[in-house]
Design goal:
This protein has about 150 residues and is of the alpha+beta class. The chain has a single domain, classed as Roll (Chitinase A, domain 3). The chain is built from 3 helices and 6 strands, in the order ααββββαββ. A hairpin with a 2-residue loop joins strand 5 and strand 6. It is elongated, with a radius of gyration of 21 Å.
């Protein structure tokens, strides 16, 4: 399997995160519109409880939105043309157990029929991989990751 281009992986990850942001914004808009309708009613405890539940959901979505914006910011900070032979933040790494982009924890993206896992530089795997180069191995939870190539 050939390693996809780093800029393609970053673009795919940004697209996925941007879609999540748009979905969360739409949900927030719907909830805010619904909450505005509920606040016009003064029917008592039932509506007060409903407004409180909507408010809690709005808070949860707002936190999710800020997390997604932070992930998007992390992805945008990765320099696609910066290639090192040693694993660092922003590296695209092919290992014996999969392909990883270190820089932002946004999950799995697919590029050119390859699955790439975008992981935080603070994750246990990334911490072990950083500073290593092709041919080296790291062990996480009894799983061996041999570095095949670094971009």
């Amino acid at each position: 399997m050939s390693l996809p281009k780093k800029q393609d992986v970053i673009a795919a990850a940004i697209s996925i995160v941007s879609q999540k942001i748009e979905r969360i914004k739409a949900e927030l808009d719907d909830l805010n519109d619904g909450n505005a309708q509920n606040s016009k009613s003064t029917a008592g405890d039932k509506h007060d409880t409903e407004r409180a539940m909507v408010h809690i959901e709005i808070e949860k979505l707002s936190k999710s939105l800020s997390v997604e914006y932070a992930i998007l910011n992390d992805l945008e900070q990765i320099k696609a043309d910066n290639v090192n032979s040693v694993v660092s933040n922003g590296s695209l790494i092919e290992t014996s157990r999969g392909i990883f982009l270190i820089g932002a924890a946004c999950g799995k993206v697919s590029v050119e029929s390859a699955s790439i896992f975008c992981i935080s530089p603070y994750s246990p795997l990334a911490k072990e991989l950083i500073g290593k180069s092709s041919g080296e191995r790291v062990i996480i939870n009894a799983n061996i990751f041999e570095i095949i190539s670094v971009q």
